[in-house]
Specification:
About 70% of the residues lie in helices and about 0% in strands. It contains 12 helices and no strands.
């Protein structure tokens, strides 16, 4: 059993998700598993995903104070459009633009941050996307497998996991933290949330940090949705524990 597998086993044995008394779960302690930067990533992603524009202005300001760069926040917004649609993305972008204009007018300079990387001309974007997805899944994938709507495989590989994931600016681990926060906040996309929790674990996000993301959602979005997220996290951890024993 690997170190990670042992850690997951011990967390489940200790009841780290509070299954015996979920109502008494220590959400505040869970949030402490995240740095201020990571809390801002989770918070902005969760609020943007559900269109809480009334809270998003404060969240963006807090994120900038926590030294996220302008381009990193832009990248979080762009990342989410693939999961929540252009309306949420464009609305969040409008809020961020307004926040930055106000801060500039007040003489509050912000870090621009790294620029996105262009995909080199001639790159096979399908194979690039497949390679990136293999990193996230920690497993090899076939090229062009038959699926019910064949174009979904092409769009996912060429656009989401190539055009977007290959842009740099944010590492895969932070992209997955934002994605998990967004999907958990939506509350009705359990299969996708399970998949991205597993991907997050595969690229170095810890179970404690994932619990921290649910803690952020409990504070800024909705307690019931956060509890559902914890239940989904527990299901993924239990599945990985079972597979590790097998």
């Amino acid at each position: 059993m690997t170190f990670t597998q042992k850690r997951i086993t011990s967390l489940l044995a200790a009841g780290f998700l509070g299954t015996a008394a979920l109502q008494a779960y220590d959400w505040k302690q869970a949030r402490k598993n995240l740095t201020a930067r990571q809390q801002s990533i989770a918070q902005t992603a969760a609020l943007a995903a559900v269109g809480r524009l009334d809270k998003l202005e404060k969240s963006f300001n807090q994120a900038l104070e926590n030294e996220l760069s302008v381009n990193e926040l832009k990248e979080i917004i762009l990342q989410l459009y693939a999961y929540t649609g252009f309306p949420r993305c464009l609305n969040a972008a409008g809020v961020l633009e307004s926040v930055l204009a106000k801060r500039q007018a007040e003489g509050r300079p912000d870090i621009t941050g790294p620029q996105p990387r262009p995909i080199p001309a001639g790159t096979d974007k399908y194979e690039l996307g497949k390679k990136n997805l293999e990193v996230l899944l920690a497993a090899p994938l076939p090229s062009h497998p038959p699926v019910f709507i064949q174009a979904t495989d092409t769009f996912l590989k060429e656009h989401l996991f190539a055009d977007i994931f290959a842009r740099g600016v944010l590492p895969f681990s932070e992209r997955e933290m934002a994605t998990v926060a967004a999907l958990a906040a939506l509350g009705d996309v359990t299969p996708q949330l399970q998949a991205h929790i597993a991907m997050a674990l595969n690229v170095g996000v810890t179970p404690e940090q994932l619990a921290g993301i649910m803690g952020v959602i409990q504070k800024t979005n909705d307690r019931k949705i956060a509890q559902q997220g914890l239940n989904t996290l527990q299901a993924v951890l239990q599945s990985r524990q079972t597979n590790a024993k097998g």
